[in-house]
Amino acid sequence: MKDLLRQNGLYQSEFEHDACGIGLYADIKGRPSHDIVKTALEMLARLDHRAGKGSDGTGDGAGLLVQIPHDFFNSVCSFSLPEAGQYGVGMLFLPQDHSKRQNIIETVKNIIKEKNYTFYGIREVPVLAESIEPIARQEAPHIVQLFVGGNDQLSDSLDYQLYTLRKTLEQRIGKELYIASLSSKTIVFKGMLCAEEVSGYYTDLKDEQFVSAIALVHSRFSTNTFPSWERAHPNRMIVHNGEINTIRGNANWFNARAKTLDKDYSNQIIDRDGSDSAIFDNVLEFLTMNGVPLAHAIMLMVPEPWEKDQDMPDSLKAFYEYNSRFMEPWDGPMALGFSNGKQAGAIMDRNGLRPARYYVTHDDRLIYSSEVGVVDLDPSQIKEKRHLKPGHVLLVDTEKGQIIPSDQLKKEISETNEYAKLLEKSITFVKSSLDKHQSTSYRDRLDRLYLQKVNGYTYEEVVKGIQVMSETGKEPVGSMGYDAPLAVLSERPQLLFNYFKQWFSQVTNPPIDAIREEHVISKVTWLGKQPNILEPTNSDTKQIKLEHPILDESQFETIQNGLLPVATLSLTFNVNDGKAGLKQALDALFQEAEAAIQNGHQLIILSDRDVDAEHAPIPSLLAVSGLHHDLIKKGLRTSASIVVDSAEPRDSHHMSALLGFGADAIYPYMAFEAIKDLIKDGHLNKSEAEASQKYIKALVGGIVKVMSKVGISAIQSYRGAQTFEALGLSKEVIDQYFTGTFSQIDGIGLEEIADETLKRHTTATKEWVSKRVSPLDPGSDLQWRQEGEFHKFNPMAIYKLQQAARKNDYGLYQEYKTLVDDSPYSTIRSLLEIKSNRQPVPLDEVEPVESIFKRFKTGAMSYGSISKEAHEALAIAMNRIGGKSNSGEGGEEVERFTLDSNGDNRRSAIKQVASGRFGVTSHYLSEANEIQIKMAQGAKPGEGGQLPAHKVYPWIAEVRGATPGVGLISPPPHHDIYSIEDLAQLIYDLKRANPTARISVKLVAKAGVGTIAAGVAKGLADVILISGHDGGTGAASKSSIAHAGIPWEIGLAEAHQTLLLNGLRNRVSLEVDGKLMSGKDVIVAACLGAEEFGFATAPLAILGCVMMRACHLDTCPVGIATQNPELRKNFTGSPDHIVNYMHFIAEDIRETLSQNGFRSLEEVVGHAELLKVRDSVQNHSKASHLDLSKMLVQTAEQGEKCNFTTPQNHELDKTFDFREVLPQTKAVVERGETGQFNFNIKNSDRSAGTTLGYTVTTSTNGVGFEEDALELQFNGYAGQSFGAFVPKGITMTLTGDANDYVGKGLSGGKLIIKPNENEGTPDDNQAIIGNVAFFGATSGEAYVRGTAGGRFCVRNSGAKVVIEGIGDNGCEYMTGGTAIVLGHIGKNFAAGMSGGTAYLFNESGDISQIANKVNQEMVNIETIIDLDEQKEVKELIEKYAHYTGSPKAEKILLHWEESVTQFVKIIPSDYELMLSTIKKLESQGLSHDEAAQKAFELKKSGHITVDHGDPNYQPA
Questions:
Q1: Which of 402, 605, 683, 1078 has its CA 20 to 30 A from that of 888?
Q2: Which Gene3D superfamilies did the record assign (predicted)?
């Protein structure tokens, strides 16, 4: 069955992701020793907890790269070898079959002979097969070492000859041979192994003669468990922790560039079947083999963000800018180790999204790793302890015997050429000149209206889209999800853009906050022929530079006028040729473009301006993508740029798709014409220039949002990256025009695409030729309208649903059910029916509703987004029936944890943990039956959220740990989840924070969600929720609502199938949500693999929602999506109504089961063979082309169970608290006494103190103990999440170092971290804790003597923390508490900070040094004037000095009167306004609560603003 599923199901190997732990151990002086190898293997073993394992314990992969040990090989080889460095060693993975193996070896020998190379011999690699797991052993290759010398007659280096030999072997022999390494300097040992198995399996590594001065190690966590020895790391030059989000675009562009080179490289450079890491390795290897120095090549591929860096030297900025003309960033979260055998080093991605620390010792050793504590060190030997920061290149040159300082290295590289002068000679910067430009309208008003109708414009798009963007510079926002038909199911002609769904990051890499972290975002665009990648400075190629890819009228005309040779090609086809005309026109277009480029044209403008009665527009996306791929195949893509001049694109989804599929720049001329008409008609009160620039700003912001939610920072990297999936297009269309794009269900072909265009064209042309063009269609995509597009939640459906639930009338429910189940096709499930060959069974033999209720949940809706009344009604109803309600991400009032006097329970059984961590405390987590990690939400996957200030009422602020009237930001990513192993760590943390709760992970459906689900299951989640694109009750941009994510039917089926293939399905429960409306929806979901079911939109409708779709405005007329006390009086919902509805759904399910011969819902779980496509689908012009067979493939034999049966083994008994802490503290906690305890700790001891915190919280009902009641002393290297969620009364002191996530969710406890007194470092400006410390801390204190990594105190809402120094993005999104930094801060400090106060010690006295690093969008920079405030700061520093013995703190205190003037205060302006207003109102006699309420009302009404803080101020 598994083979059938793998062949015919939805799983694709391209979806596989991995993450890992990595390390580099090197002797800086280049002295080879066995100790380097031995210690590196120990390092690898200590990273094992970062790796993944299959259901049987098989490792996901591990290995190491070392220098070739010449003396060892000389002693063990049975043949003679030349001098060291005069030969290469190949590590060959061969088939186990003897005859195949011998044939390959003979072929290898023959090819060596052909090339006149020297064959020295083959050595069998000794392995200990019994030391590894059975599946790894079964799949293991036969491994031999090839010893070969070069051809002395060739001028190429030996390693270049070995490189070409390897490429020849790979091409000639194919997949039966894998060459792990073939080099004269390095050798790779790796496999499908656990970290600790490497040394046991490869017995050579234990030999004392096996020496090296360099060792790179890697321990892999794959989202899949399918055996793969080849995909283990190291690659040939790198170890990589992270994910390259731009890999498809990078690979396509590199192949295009390679085809322009003099040598015949054809397609042999990149292995397209390789992982993203392997492809990166291929290109790095190619560059270095062709003479690009290693560090130079690394800087080309992973440039730091240079455009907005004021501190970057001009020469370095010029280097990056010049090289960006021909190499886009390989973008994504990345910690990269690399080596060529002589040099070794490491670099981070531009965002600093992976952990990386390094130590340098007095005896010249370098230890670099994902964690500290992986190597045992004598503290006195430690010379330096550092974080590897974004933009920092760590490079050891063992020949020079030194670490090359990063700044020196970059200076040397950037000054190898006069890049600034080269830029002056070769580029022209085309800026907007709209303010001086004489604009003219395109054709007359009738023609413009005609062209708009040809291109499907609606009044809704113009007025609620283009007009809004032109007024505000932002995209329009909507609410309540998407319930219109999929494009392929719509009866109305659709734009081709609508068949593509935006990708987004979840789990395996993070989305980026492009607003708060704008400094890493690059929008620069180059037009024209690209320089030669190997000789870029020898080219006189001219290019045009643009600030971004959206052109206005002035820029487009400038480009048209010949800065570079231009060819304008028609983007139309002849309507007289019918549907076939589209393909003919595309073929002709591609030929014309090829000819134009061959004739020297460097700009290809695709223009649809000649649309008329006989010419219809070619869909611009089809033309762009098709031409892009055609030119790549012909080796011409880098010789010219594609500029789109089209009436069709008008919103950010359109622009993003065009860029993502290869367009270089876009001029959406009809949208600009619409703006002109809006101004003429009096709808826009702006100048044409201002309105156009606002519109462009909204578009560019939308593009950046789309690319950032898939984790891409640079438009250059996004271009051609194809971060979309097709939904409803045929395989033929995809393969020919959108090559490499994912599509999981087949669909319409080119003729149907042409037909949709022709329908619009025909209708519009009939009116146009008669000179009577009617107004635009009103439009009804996101809002129901009579005679408009069908919506599942239409007025009649809502009315029937509400009446049935309120009257408890099952007959009315049946009417509602008929209405929704038999409605026009709009979803995948609407095409399906349930058919069984079983005989019906009596209804009374089917499981009761009470049993089914246990599977029901309500969706996550935060207290803040909806009212108290609505939130509690859902909780009460679900608790009454034994289901579960979900708190959402806004926290929950403590009073709800206690039963009401009537027995009702307002406590949400599911507590959500989202990116904002609002209200996430030890107490909150302890009150959960299930804890849900929200990775994404259906309305806007990959995006964050914002609770605007006018909705942060005092009671909301209290629950969220915030300030009334101050807006709150939920970041796009969880800042403690940048990869799959990070998610596994959060699951680990939360299970320790509440060992009795199930841990759930919410994902949104997308192609590849199955492999992500497999990784989540391996990370030990108990429940996996697949959420559909159509769900989502939250506010989001309208483009996200309509175009992000895919139907849950596909995502659920893929998740179920992939979990089965991985042997993981029985270990997790699968849940689904997304516009579930009837019992049929539940049955369909069950057949596709779901066991639990979430409802959100329907319950809100039952409570009174009438789909105004303006939930974000706080104006909900029925009292649901509002906190306004007056509007909440309109709430008429009742828990009884929800209970009635759930009864109806359960009864509906029972009847369907009965009719189909099943006695329980569990019997149908995963049996997709019960679902059949309705016969009537064949009558639908588009739906009839769909192929759902992959989704409906049989996954189990009839009657076989394929659902959750075996609980995950969380190994709680093996964790540090259960092993060490709880046994010592149990008696003291139970008696409520005080105590002191001592522990040794190591890097694999994670979440120390968290479960102790749980026991304290539960035993004190959330109150905690008195301060310092439990004092825990630790010595050593603390693992991740030291002190996470620790409550009041627990004090944890660590002497040593800690890894990432220290003090995560700190809930009142106290943490003290200080270095070992014997440490040999010169000062306290040394790394002591990792990244993302005190994330989501809500209360408590921390004192850290040393420096933290990036994203310190992110979303701190109440903790007081003192530290010596921090990395980039400190205090991001902070909403409360205090942070005192006595030393260095990194870039982008205080971004998104809306509350709390930071005090920065500015010893130099130069305020600009601080100001340049502070994101000043939301904060003020001040001095400490208030004496009480000075006293508070001094007291915290006194405590810091007392607890840590910090010399710097003691010096500050010794000279306090001078020191206090050197502190810079960072405080959010809105927060400061509210605090001062509340203080003034309290001085007038109001209580604190009264003052907070009054201040909120004043702020909301505009009576106080940042500019006017007087409560008596009257706005104009």
A1: 1078
A2: Aldolase class I, Glutamate synthase, alpha subunit, C-terminal domain, Glutamine Phosphoribosylpyrophosphate, subunit 1, domain 1
Residue 555 burial by Cβ neighbours in a 10 Å radius (0-12, 13-18, 19+)? buried
3-state secondary structure of 1041: helix
The helix (run of H) or strand (run of E) holding residue 570 is: strand 566-570
Q: What is the mean pLDDT of residues 496-516?
A: 95
Structural tokens at position 1469: 């302006």
Instruction: Give dist(CA 254, CA 327) in Å, integer.
Output: 8
pLDDT of residue 626: 98
Paired tokens of 933: 């990690």
Beta strands in 1077-1220 (DSSP E): 1092-1095, 1171-1173
Domain boundaries, the chain: 447-473+495-531+543-769, 846-1167, 1236-1477
The pLDDT value given to residue 265? 57
Cβ atoms of 264 and 243 closer than 8 Å = no
What local confidence, expressed as pLDDT, does residue 1514 receive?
41
Max mean pLDDT among 1106-1115, 1277-1286, 1403-1412 falls in 1277-1286
Strands 724-726, 500-502: pairing kind: antiparallel
What's the pLDDT at 1509? Answer: 55
Q: What is the CATH number of domain 1236-1477?
A: 2.160.20.60
CA distance 637 to 649: 23
pLDDT digits (tens, 9 = 90+) for 1030-1048: 876 677 888 898 999 999 9
Q: Is 747 helix (H, G, I), strand (E, B) or coil?
A: coil
| Cα(1370)–Cα(1347) distance, integer angstroms | 12
Q: How far apart are CA 743 and CA 731, in angstroms?
A: 8
% of the chain beyond a pLDDT of 70: 98
Single-letter amino acid code for the residue at 1298 = A
Please indicate whether the domains covering 447-473+495-531+543-769 and 1236-1477 agree at the CATH topology level: no
Which architecture, in CATH terms, is 447-473+495-531+543-769?
Alpha-Beta Barrel (3.20)
CA dist list (Å): 1478 to 949, 961, 1125, 1512: 16, 17, 21, 13
CA atoms of 1499 and 1477, how far apart (whole Å) = 9
Query: Distance between CA 797 and CA 779 in Å, rounded?
Result: 20
pLDDT digit string, tens, across residues 656-699: 999 999 999 999 999 999 999 999 999 999 999 999 999 999 99
Distance between CA atoms of 210 and 206, rounded to whole angstroms? 7
pLDDT band at 306 (very low <50, low <70, confident <90, very high): very high
Picking from 92, 152, 100, the residue whose alpha carbon sits closest to that of residue 122 is 92
Position 1513 pLDDT exceeds 50: no
The H or E element containing residue 945 is strand 945-947
Place of tokens 């170890």: 239
How far apart CA 1361 and CA 1338 sit, in angstroms, is 12
Measured CA to CA, the distance from residue 692 to residue 670 in angstroms comes to 12
Contact 673, 457 (CB under 8 A): no
Q: How far apart are CA 193 and CA 1428, in angstroms?
A: 60
DSSP collapsed to 3 states, 609-652: CCCECCEEECCHHHHHHHHHHHHHHCCCHHHCEEEEECCCCCCH
How are beta strands 1339-1347 and 1357-1365 bridged, if at all?
parallel
Q: CA end-to-end span of the chain, whole Å? A: 73
Fold annotation for 846-1167: TIM Barrel (3.20.20)
Q: Which of 216-230, 235-249, 288-302, 1223-1237 has the lowest mean pLDDT?
A: 216-230
Cis status, amide bond into 493, omega within 30 of 0: no
Phi/psi at 691 (5° precision): -65, -40
Q: CB of 967 within 8 A of CB of 947?
A: yes
pLDDT score of 855 more than 60: yes
- Phi first, then psi: what are they for 385, rounded to 5°? -130, 120
Find the helix or strand (DSSP H, E) in which 385 lies.
strand 382-387
Q: Which residues does the annotation mark as catalytic?
A: 20
In 3D space, the residue among 1345, 1383, 1344 whose CA is nearest the CA of residue 1367 turns out to be 1383
